[in-house]
Design goal:
The protein is α/β, with parallel strands linked by helices. The protein has two domains: 33 residues; 296 residues, Zn peptidases (Aminopeptidase), CATH 3.40.630. The protein has an eight-stranded mixed sheet with strand order 1-2-6-3-7-10-8-9, sandwiched between helices. The protein starts with a helix and ends in a 7-residue tail after the last helix.
C-alpha cells in the first residue's frame, strides 16, 4: 500500500511540474507577443506615409517624423539624454552638395539601468530618407523609405516600449533615431563625437528588416559578424526560439561601414547592424517605390522579437561583447593610398 501511495505522489508531482513548466513557457510567449503586428504596422505606415514627405534631413517632413518618435518616447516614460532638456540632440552641418547649412536632430530616449546604469547599450536606426525628388517620367516623387529605414525605426519604437514595460535592463539603454544617415552617417557621427566610448557596451543598429532574408524565413543577418563576439552571443540566446541569425552574406558591399553602427564601431564599441534586406535583388532600394505595401509586417515583427530575445543577456548585464578592433584606415574612414 505504501508503495502504491508513493507512486501516486510521484505521478502527481510530475504532472504538477509539467503544468508549472507549461505556465512559464506561456508567460514568456505572451511577453514576446507584446511586440505585436498591429503596433508594428501602425508605426511603419505612419513613418512611411506621404505626410512625412520622404523624411529628408532638414525638411518639414522629417520634423513630423521627429514629433511622432518624441511622442512615443514620452508615452513609454523614457528620460532625456545627458544634459538635454528634451529628446532632441540638435546640431547644424553643411550639406556637401548644396553647401547650405542644415539644422538636424537625433532623437534620443533613455531607459535608465539599475545595477549597471553607467554602462550603455545603444538601440538605433536612422529615421531620415531621401525626401522628395522630382524625376522626369516618374509619377511618384515621394521617396517614402518604408524599408529604408522606417522598418528599423519601427523596431526602435517597439523595443523601447517592450523594455520599458519589462524593466529587466541592468544597463542603461539609449534608444536613438539618427538623422542624416543617407547623407553620410551625419547624425551618428555627431553623437559619437560627444561620448566616452569606454562606457558603451554595445550598439544594436537595425536597418531594412521588412523583407525575408536570403537565408529564408525567420532569419536575419548581422554586419561585421567576425569583428566581435556580439553575433555569437545573439546566436546563443536565440537557440530554441525558431529564429536564426547569420553573418552578413554581402561582404562585397562593405555594409559594416555603411550604416550608423560604423560611427560607434570606429570608437571600438561592438556595434553591429541587424538586417534581413535582400539588397542584391531589391528593386525598391532607394526608389520611390519603397512603400509600406511592399513589406512583410510579420517579418518585421518576428525580427523585432528575435532582437529582443537575442540581446536580452547584454541588456541584463550578463554578457559583454568583445571590443571591435579596426585598422587606422577603417577608423578614419579613409582608404589606404596605393604605392
Amino acid at each position: 500500500m505504501k508503495k502504491i501511495n508513493l507512486i501516486y505522489v510521484l505521478f502527481f508531482a510530475i504532472i504538477f511540474s509539467c503544468k508549472e513548466n507549461t505556465k512559464q513557457t506561456t508567460v514568456k510567449e505572451v511577453t514576446i507577443a507584446d511586440i505585436d503586428t498591429t503596433t508594428v504596422r501602425k508605426h511603419l505606415y505612419t513613418l512611411a506615409s506621404d505626410e512625412m514627405e520622404g523624411r529628408g534631413t532638414g525638411t518639414q517632413g522629417i520634423e513630423k517624423a521627429a514629433q511622432y518618435i518624441e511622442s512615443k518616447f514620452k508615452k513609454f516614460g523614457l528620460k532625456t539624454y545627458d544634459t538635454l532638456n528634451n529628446y532632441r540632440q540638435t546640431f547644424t552641418f553643411t550639406n556637401r552638395q548644396t553647401k547650405k547649412e542644415i539644422t538636424a536632430s537625433n532623437i534620443i530616449g533613455v531607459l535608465e539601468g539599475k545595477s549597471k546604469k553607467d554602462e550603455y547599450v545603444v538601440v538605433s536606426a536612422h529615421y531620415d530618407h531621401l525626401g522628395i525628388r522630382n524625376k522626369e517620367g516618374q509619377l511618384d516623387s515621394i521617396y517614402n523609405g518604408a524599408d529604408d529605414d522606417a522598418s528599423g525605426t519601427t523596431a526602435v519604437l517597439a523595443l523601447a516600449e517592450y523594455f520599458s514595460k519589462k524593466k529587466i535592463n541592468e544597463r542603461t539603454i539609449l534608444f536613438i533615431a539618427f538623422t542624416g544617415e543617407e547623407m553620410g552617417l551625419i547624425g551618428s557621427n555627431h553623437f559619437g563625437k560627444g561620448i566616452d566610448s569606454t562606457k558603451f557596451v554595445a550598439g544594436i543598429n537595425i536597418e531594412m528588416i521588412g523583407k525575408e532574408s536570403n537565408y529564408g524565413p525567420k532569419t536575419a543577418w548581422l554586419t561585421g559578424f567576425n569583428r566581435s563576439d556580439f553575433g555569437t552571443i545573439i546566436q546563443k540566446n536565440l537557440e530554441g526560439s525558431g529564429y536564426v541569425l547569420h553573418p552578413d552574406p554581402f561582404q562585397k558591399f562593405n555594409l559594416f561601414f555603411r550604416s550608423d553602427n560604423a560611427s560607434l564601431a570606429r570608437l571600438g564599441i561592438p556595434a553591429h547592424t541587424f538586417s534581413t534586406g535582400p539588397i542584391d535583388v531589391d528593386i525598391h532600394y532607394h526608389k520611390a517605390s519603397d512603400e509600406p505595401e511592399t513589406l512583410n509586417v510579420s517579418n518585421i515583427t518576428e525580427t523585432i522579437r528575435a532582437i529582443a530575445i537575442g540581446t536580452e543577456s547584454i541588456i541584463k548585464g550578463e554578457d559583454t561583447p568583445t571590443r571591435v578592433v579596426l585598422t587606422v584606415e577603417e577608423m578614419t574612414g579613409r582608404r589606404k593610398k596605393k604605392k
